[in-house]
Amino acid sequence: MKNRFKLIAGEEVLLTKSPSPVGFMSMYMLGLIVFGIHMLFWRPDSLLNEDSGGLARFLVWVMGLGGSKLPLGFVLVMATLTWFNRMLNTSTSGRWVTVWLLLATLLPVLIQIDGLIALVRDLFSDADIEPFLGWEYNFLISGLALTLTYWALVFYYQRSFDYAITSNAVIFKHAFLLSRSHRRILFDRISEVQVERTPFGTMTGFATLTILTDSGVGIVEESVGGSVGISPNLPDKEDDTNAEKAGKSLLKSFFALMFYQRTIRTVRPDPKHCFYKIRGWEDTKTLLNEMHKKHSQSTKLDNLADILTEQNQGKE
User: How many Cβ atoms from other residues are within 10 Å of residue 182's Cβ?
Assistant: First the structure.
């Protein structure tokens, strides 16, 4: 235990925690979505029947872009999913998940790179150019391999977090692939302990405990609103009428309101720096409050006052 959390001499571990596997359900669902996309491209005709509408036919048309030599439709769909997942800034928007999504997006192009070369040569040649290797991207096999690999990484990722409450401090440990982090927060530095429970967490029994400190641990700055640089270029001219000037002023005010951006300070749980989606959170919070009270300045002053009082009474 001492080597596990890098304890100091005389320090005792009071409680250890790790994230609940159910708390990473959204990451497992992302893998299922990617597998579903692979299945649709494996059997695109399954979307069409006698009652298929225009939307289904449009989707099949997009899926057929590039043909078998270069599946541009698949790359377009996966790139859109990757972009939305990154922009949503949720628990599935981490860097390694984005890298995996990009790999899944570009894998058909990498496997069929000779097909891409042949496609480019076809544009400048009258003769049909055959691919050198002739490999084809199998959506079923690739979907299974990518999804199972991703789920294995998610399982490894959820077990890479280790939390402990000791007699001296709160310790957050993380070790995933080549990434390592170790944070130690003394109890007298804690200013607040926040509990966050999502509806799914309430039903399944887990919650996130975020520790806030005076130095800003647990608080992040994020921009809310659109981009400040987006505004119409409507220069005023000398020959503009009063109506035109009023219209330009109204447009500028409208765009300024629509794309207003401000920076706010908010609490965003980071699995590396909080008790992320743990079970038994009530006991954890109670222990944190007790240890915080024990090591607080007011308690230390009260103990010092009691000692001085006892010394004065002993002298009398």
Answer: 13
